[in-house]
Amino acid sequence: MSKRLCLSLLSAPQRTHHEQTCRLLLQRQQIWNTTTALDSDQTGRLARSSCRSFSSTACQRVGINRMAGRPQQKPQQSITLQQKQAMKKMQASGEHLDHVGLLEGTFVPPTGEKLPSLFSDPRGRWKVVRYQFKSWLGIIQSRLTAFWFVKPRLKLEVGKTPRIAKELYEEMYAAFANGNMAAMQGKVAPGLLRSLNDRIAQRTPNTHLQWKLHKYIGSPECVSYKFAMPEVKGPNTTRTGLMQAVVKIKSQQSLLQVKRQRMRDPATKQQVVAEMPIDRNGKEIQNFDREVEEKKNMKTMVEYFVIERLLIKGQLGSWRAWGTTQEADLAKLLKAENEKHKALMGGESPMG
């Protein structure tokens, strides 16, 4: 079959001439696509003048249709322009405030062994006092900013932050221990919510925690408060900003790990879901006494709980949990201050 087809093509001069014409047109089509614009115009004129009688042949119609049906590609935007547009959308929705993190200049004063001694390290102690004074000035600045640049007058609620933090603290830890953060939607910052859900997903199946707060040691205390706005353009009624408070919470609490499993109730003879306390190795605790286990696992915790509140286009949201932070490390603060001073002085050491 193939041999006869080949002989048939060779024995037909008109078909041979037609095949050569198609090949010539295809070669010219390739030249059209690969040469410069000037050469392309010249080649196109040559093709039109020399092959006008074959304008209705099948080969050329296929080439023309392919070029005519080829969609024109839209010019792609640069990466820089795409980033600017994405940032504008985030600023318009207030989403960029979710990525701010802990506001710059937040200072949590060190305590205990981390606090420099007034007698053995008076210079370090003076540094701490200076940072505390700057933190206090930050609260004053926040009040002035809220008073002058936001309408209607913005209530910072500095005095209410310990109570608000206490409520969010208890709700968040109870939901996390139970393994259900759905009820905390809107009460926890997106980053913290993702982190807690990831930790819940890593637990052994059919297990959860029982968290109990036995008592507070002292009252929760606001140790830092800041209010910042990314910009002050536009009318005062459409401001966007972020307020953050760091509340010190000291408490005694315990944590038990529990496994859920199905078992038959001896009284009703029906299948029920029972909670069996287990140890760290996942083994059931024999002769379980809740009071004894709670006392054994009870710990004194000191946490610096961070809460925040968003102001988006003049609309004030509710307080939500951001996470926790730590006491300031004086050595790191001095190192950062030294590097900043060196950058301002053109690389020279402030001590030199």
TrEMBL record:
<keyword id="KW-0809">Transit peptide</keyword>
<keyword id="KW-0496">Mitochondrion</keyword>
<dbReference type="InterPro" id="IPR024621">
    <property type="entry name" value="Mba1"/>
</dbReference>
<dbReference type="Pfam" id="PF07961">
    <property type="entry name" value="MBA1"/>
</dbReference>
<dbReference type="InterPro" id="IPR051975">
    <property type="entry name" value="mtLSU_mL45"/>
</dbReference>
<dbReference type="GO" id="GO:0005743">
    <property type="term" value="C:mitochondrial inner membrane"/>
</dbReference>
<dbReference type="GO" id="GO:0032979">
    <property type="term" value="P:protein insertion into mitochondrial inner membrane from matrix"/>
</dbReference>
<protein>
    <recommendedName>
        <fullName>Tim44-like domain-containing protein</fullName>
    </recommendedName>
</protein>
